[in-house]
Fold this sequence. Notes:
The structure is a single chain. This protein is α+β, with helices and mostly antiparallel strands and 415 residues long. The chain folds into two domains: 93-277, tricorn interacting facor f3 domain (Immunoglobulin-like); 280-412, Neutral Protease Domain 2 (Neutral Protease, domain 2, Orthogonal Bundle). It is built from seven helices and 21 strands. It has helices at residues 21-41, 64-81, 305-312, 315-326, 360-368, 384-401, 403-412; strands at 2-3, 93-105, 110-121, 126-132, 138-145, 148-149, 152-155, 158-167, 172-181, 192-197, 200-205, 228-236, 240-243, 246-252, 256-263, 274-277, 280-286, 294-300, 336-340, 345-347, 352-355. The strands form four sheets. It has an eight-stranded mixed beta sheet, with no helix packed on it. It has a six-stranded mixed beta sheet with strand order 1-20-21-19-18-17. Strands 10-11-16-13 form a four-stranded antiparallel beta sheet, with no helix packed on it. β7 (152-155) and β8 form a beta hairpin. The two termini are 26 Å apart. Residues 5-48 and 56-63 have low confidence and may be disordered. The protein binds zinc ion. Zinc ion binds at residues 1-2, 365, 369, 388, 391.
Amino acid sequence: MVNSPLGSNTLGSLVPSRPAPDSIARRRRAGLAGIVLILALAAPRGAAAAPERPAPQWIGPRDMTDVLAAGKIRSFSRMLARMQVATANQNAFDVTYYDLDLHPNPANSVLTATVRTRASVVAGPVSTLELDFDNTNMTVDAVTCAGGPASFTHASNLLTIALDRPYLTGEMVDVTVAYHGTPLTGGFGDAFTFQTHNGTPLITSLSEPFDARLWWPCKDDPADKADSADIRVSLPSGMVTAGNGVLVESSDNGTTAFRHWKCRHPIATYLVSIASFAYSLVPDTYLPAVGPAMPLQFYLFPESVPTAGVVNQKVKSMIAAYATRYGEYPFLDEKYGEAQFLWGGGMENQTCTSLGVFNETTVAHELAHQWFGDNVTCRDFHHVWLNEGFATYSEALWAECSRATWARARSTCRS
Ligand SMILES: [Zn+2]
């Protein structure tokens, strides 16, 4: 993830990205610093010599990487304060599969959906199954277990489902939850949002680190990746949904636009994502050292196609550069994609990064997360520095590989 500062949006004239919360906080702090400086200058003379202070530092491009890093640290510090660890019940099962069937309604901003969860019991017997799910804005309509109706309670952001019988270690539990609601705003400002862009509906998600539970019931713990997932989305005609994995079905009958994405690699809940808009799809291909070409799919606002294309045409070279150093792209049998959204940064959703800025550094950073964060995932978010550390290192690695950007990168590095 990259949380960009104001002014870094290379599509600024085209995309009205909202300032990230960190940027606002930074400006407020800058204002307070100015007040403190004025008070210091007004202090009476003749007082004892104050301890020597370092000269004020000019904050410019040379320090921008520090500003970005500080923004991430502040953001994740806030998130960690909200972290809820897995319950004892959740530690007794291992999720193997999620099936999301989403029906977002842009007209009233209500998400109506069903989510099926299959899990293997690892410490039975268990008679209930607990899923993380917001109970402030989201209402559970019905639950089934093994195909039959099941009773449940929904409180303290935990959905507790009574199973049809005790399940022993090694047995599979199969539950489906039907629900609806308008999801709460997440920690980064976008969990599952209904917006418009140029008057057209735009629906996007951003679930890192603990916001998947705001829009779908799940075991919201990066230590337990599902082995696979299906994501089905039904929306009004004309909307195009980008998602994780491979597109296996797409239709638009003039009333409803339906898309089914199939993810067959292990995936953490915070990396499950959709982005829906009247996107323009720009295709490209990456040719690996061995095997067939892999599709690249860039879902863009139509007016952004020319500008974003300047950097996106380099993505296949970025993948090749990382592949020679980190190993081949980890989702070679699926794809790499991007979906444009209005958040002022990027989020490395698995095989389909959500992007609000299209500068080369951000694109290279988010791509690197496919190796570090998505394929290899930290057990909990106390270790997220590993994700961000490798992705930030990869920015410099790409700069080194790309002669066109090397001189600029060198001029902004610390001496
Ligand atoms: Zn990152």
